[in-house]
Amino acid sequence: MGAGERVYTMQIAMKLIQIRNVPDDVHRRLKVRAADRGTTMSQLAYDAVVEYAERPTLAELREILAEREPIDRPQGDAAAAVAEARAQRSA
Fold this sequence. Notes:
With 91 residues, the chain is mainly alpha-helical. The chain is built from 4 helices and no strands. The relative contact order is 0.05.
């Protein structure tokens, strides 16, 4: 470092989540899954938490659906339509 140069460091505080009282069988299954993926249990848990946090909440999902255009579809019994389509495929 030359004369008059300054070094600045920035420290980012990451939050910590601790899960207590994890049943032994759940711990074992997570350990196996982490090993199968070639990762750590911490990374496996981190990935699951991030995936969960990125999902829209029920309120957000309702908002998204409310903004969409309605779909024109024939009125009638949906179960009967599915059964009919399956019967046609089987024939």
